[in-house]
Amino acid sequence: MPNAVDVKRFSPSNKVLAKQKVGAPNGVPLVLMVANLAPHKGQETAILAAAILKEMKVRSHFWLAGIERGGKQEYTAHLYALCHRLKVADRVRFLGHREDVPELLRAADIFLLPSTAEGLPLSVLEAQATKVPVLAASTAGIPEVVTDRESGFLIPAEDALGYAHRIESLLRCPEISNRVTEQAYTRIIKQHNWSTYSEKVWTLYESLIEKE
After folding, report:
1. Per-residue buried b or exposed e for 167-192, using 16+ beta carbons within 10 Å of the residue's own CB
2. Assign residue 144 a region: left if phi > 0, alpha if psi is -120 to 50, beta otherwise?
3. Main-chain dihedrals φ then ψ at residue 65, nearest 5 degrees
4. Does 134 score more than 90 pLDDT?
5. Kind and range of the H or E run holding 34
6. Which of 32, 40, 63, 137 could cysteine-pair with 108, CB 3.0–4.6 Å?
7. Domain extent at residue 200
8. How many domains, in total, are found in the chain?
9. What is the pLDDT of residues 85-103, one digit of tens each?
10. The domain spanning residue 160 has which CATH number?
11. What is the 3-state secondary structure (H, E, C) of 92-156?
12. What is the CA radius of gyration of the chain?
C-alpha cells in the first residue's frame, strides 16, 4: 500500500510569512532536506551542491533537518568538516531534530533527497503536499510519486553537479517549478490523502475476507 499524507497538516501557505516564522532569511532561496544524518541519505551530495552553487554565484541556503541515529556523532562531525573544507558553513545549517517540519516545508523553495536507500519516503509526499518542488534520486519507491519533469525531478544520488544545475534552473525559471509543483500537488490531494488511503485499506481487507 502506498503511503498517505495528512494534507491538512502539510499544506501550502504564504512563503514570505513562513520564512519569517522559522527564521529563514527572506529573499534567499531555501533548499531543505529532512532526513536522518546518514551516508545513504545524501547529505554529502547536498553540501557539494551548495559549494557548486556558491561557485556559480547563486544565492542559496541549505537547511538539513535530522540527527544521526544511535547517539553517534561521527558522520555529523564529518559533514561539519566537509562544510568548512568547502567554505559553505555560512550556507549550510544543521537543524537537528525538529517538530515543526510542516512550517519548514512551507518556508522551503526546494526539497532535496539524494538518497541511495528508501522505501516510499513520507517526506517526499509531504513536500509535494506543501507545493515544494522535489529533487530526489530514483531510489526504490520514489519514482512511484516523482515522475521526472512532471511531478518532480529525478537525479542520480551522487550527482551533486546535476542537483546544483537543476536548483539554479528552477530559481531562474520559477514557472517550471510552479508547473511541476501544481501537478504533484494535484496527484497527492487525489491519491495520497488519508481518506483515499483508508478506502484502499478497507477494500483490501474486504477482498481478503471474501477469500476466506
Report:
1. bbebbeeeeebeebbebbbebbeeeb
2. alpha
3. -95, 135
4. yes
5. strand 30-34
6. 32
7. 15-211
8. 1
9. 999 999 999 999 999 999 9
10. 3.40.50.2000
11. EEEEECCCCHHHHHHHCCEEEECCCCCCCCHHHHHHHHCCCCEEECCCCCHHHCCCECCCEEECC
12. 18
Q: Is the residue at 33 inside a domain?
A: yes
Q: For residues 135 and 133, what is the distance between their CA atoms, to the nearest angstrom?
A: 7
Q: Establish if 9 belongs to a structural domain.
A: no
In a domain? residue 121 = yes
Q: Compute the residue count for the chain.
A: 212
**Picking from 159-163, 187-191, 205-209, which range would have the lowest pLDDT averaged per residue?**
205-209
Three-state SS sequence of 41-94: HCHHHHHHHHHHHHHCCCCCEEEEEECCHHHCCHHHHHHHHHHHHCCCCCCEEE
Is residue 4 in some structural domain?
Answer: no
